[in-house]
């Protein structure tokens, strides 16, 4: 059966995995490698490396099941027409969005830094959603893609927990999707923000969704495969 009970907080959740999609948020070089946008803001990008291996294991399990897989990338058009001035002005004047960095123009679509890290490179047939904002639904085709495939449940991981992951989960919650966030497959430049971000999701009986470990989700996926 594709419906599996997953151990989670604030309580276990029964998910129909045949109506689920894995959403991997912004695992890009600009956020995880030196010289990218994350580093230009003064962050220690090495703090995000811990979520790569859990994301890899989750991605492998989802591929084995034939689950819909969605990768998102935050970035802007080369002419910056989709980037608000208030966003461009953040950071050091010489290292802002659109400036030339070690991996090309910072946070610009098509530049090396905009690409997803090699460890999680999308395969042919997997959706890649380019977004100009923090949330994956804002000015993108994500909602239409999910509706066309009858998706009701989202397995969410990526970076950063309190920014793009959180914004996407909030957007999805408002649209009626049930969101399960993998605690160890998300990361933040600020460990305390990561912890609090997860607590906010599960607060008040799961006001925005549920939180589980990668192992708990993979166990459910394997069980679904065994009973298929």
Number of helices: 8
Q: Strand order within the widest sheet?
A: 7-4-3-8-9-10
| Major sheet size, sense and barrel closure | 6 strands, parallel
The helix content, as a percent range, equals: 25-40%
Distance between the termini: 6 Å
Describe this structure in words.
The protein has 228 residues and is of the alpha/beta class. The chain has helices spanning 29-32, 37-40, 52-65, 85-88, 142-148, 161-174, 191-206, 214-226; strands at residues 3-6, 13-16, 20-25, 68-74, 100-101, 104-105, 127-131, 153-159, 178-187, 210-212. The strands form three sheets. The chain has a six-stranded parallel sheet with strand order 7-4-3-8-9-10, sandwiched between helices. Strands 1-2 form a two-stranded antiparallel sheet. It has a two-stranded antiparallel sheet with strand order 5-6. A hairpin with a 2-residue loop joins strand 5 (100-101) and strand 6. The chain is globular and about 55 Å long.
TL;DR?
The protein is of the alpha/beta class. Helices cover 33% and strands 22% of the residues.
Keywords:
228 residues, alpha/beta, 6-stranded parallel sheet, two-stranded antiparallel sheet, 8 helices, 22% strand, globular
Question: What topology does this entry show?
Answer:
Blueprint (H helix, E strand, L loop, with lengths): L2 E4 L6 E4 L3 E6 L3 H4 L4 H4 L11 H14 L2 E7 L10 H4 L11 E2 L2 E2 L21 E5 L10 H7 L4 E7 L1 H14 L3 E10 L3 H16 L3 E3 L1 H13 L2
Parallel strand pairs: 3-4, 3-8, 4-7, 8-9, 9-10
Antiparallel strand pairs: 1-2, 5-6
Helix pairs in contact: 3-8, 6-7
């Amino acid at each position: 059966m594709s419906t599996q009970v997953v151990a989670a907080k604030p309580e276990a959740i029964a998910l129909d995995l045949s109506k689920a999609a894995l959403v991997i948020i912004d695992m890009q070089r600009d956020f995880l490698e030196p010289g990218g946008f994350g580093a230009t803001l003064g962050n220690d990008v090495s703090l995000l490396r811990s979520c790569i291996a859990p994301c890899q294991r989750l991605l492998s399990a989802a591929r084995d099941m034939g689950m819909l897989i969605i990768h998102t990338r935050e970035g802007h058009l080369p002419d910056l027409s989709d980037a608000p001035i208030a966003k461009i002005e953040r950071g050091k004047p010489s290292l802002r969005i659109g400036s030339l960095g070690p991996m090309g123009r910072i946070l610009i679509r098509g530049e090396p830094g905009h690409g997803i890290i090699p460890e999680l490179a999308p395969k042919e047939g997997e959706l890649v959603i380019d977004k100009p904002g923090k949330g994956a639904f804002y000015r993108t085709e994500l909602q239409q893609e999910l509706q066309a495939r009858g998706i009701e449940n989202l397995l969410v991981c990526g970076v950063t927990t309190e920014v793009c992951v959180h914004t996407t989960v909030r957007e999805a919650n408002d649209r009626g999707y049930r969101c399960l966030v993998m605690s160890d497959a998300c990361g933040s430049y600020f460990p305390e923000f990561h912890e609090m971000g997860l607590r906010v999701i599960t607060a008040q009986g799961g006001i925005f969704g549920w939180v589980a470990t990668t192992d708990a989700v993979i166990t459910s996926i394997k069980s679904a495969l065994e009973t298929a």
